[in-house]
Amino acid sequence: MGKTKYMMSGGLAFTEAADMKKLRRKSLEGWHLKRFRCAGYEFEKGESEDLIYSIDYRLLEPDEKDEYFEMFTVGGWTPVCSEYNMHIFKADKGTVPIYSDAESARDKINRLAIPVKKFTVLIVGLTILFGILMKFTSGSIQNVSLFFFNCALILAVPSVMTYLATVYHRLKK
Q1: Which of 71, 92, 113 delimits the end of a domain?
Q2: Which residues contact residue 170 at a Cβ distance below 8 angstroms, ignoring those fewer than 6 apart?
């Protein structure tokens, strides 16, 4: 058996809690999270441990990183991996959750929604722009517009779904 394994993410905006439970089950099997990789997770083989995982969304300036990670370390959480504004931490079972009240959980979702909203607005705007160009032009400009319209639409649908998931979670909290 290899020393590296991969698992797809269910989409953190949709199944964050389920993903964190899957990471825990993998740790119990001796597979430990190493890093994010292509919309999923990369694991490496090790000893079985009963760990819990949590994720935080925060875009950090270079001078904020040490203080940010120290705050979690003091609370018993160890940084595992980071990608852009997503940071996954692990801790021993029974450690106080990172988000133990409704206000902090709402704040986390609001931070997640900001880049998702920006990307969604951009990609939906491009989809509309290319749709208009496609409708009101002809020849090679229309063909190019059609190609980019389809590309933008392929990105727009999951983007809108992801943004709607963040809206749902904000209303739910």
Answers
A1: 92
A2: 106, 109, 110, 113
Structural domain harbouring 54: 4-92
Q: What is the pLDDT of residues 122-160, one digit of tens each?
A: 999 999 999 999 999 999 999 999 999 999 999 999 999
Q: E strands, 69-136, where?
A: 78-83, 86-92
Distance CA 134, CA 65 (A): 46
Which helix (H) or strand (E) segment is 57 a member of? strand 51-57
Residue type for position 85: N
Tell me, yes or no, whether 64 and 110 share the same domain: no
Same domain membership, residue 122 and residue 70: no
Could you give the C-alpha distances from 85 to 11, 112, 124, 160, in angstroms and in order? Answer: 15, 8, 22, 19
Q: Quick check: 145 and 153 in contact, CB under 8 A?
A: no
Give the pTM.
0.71
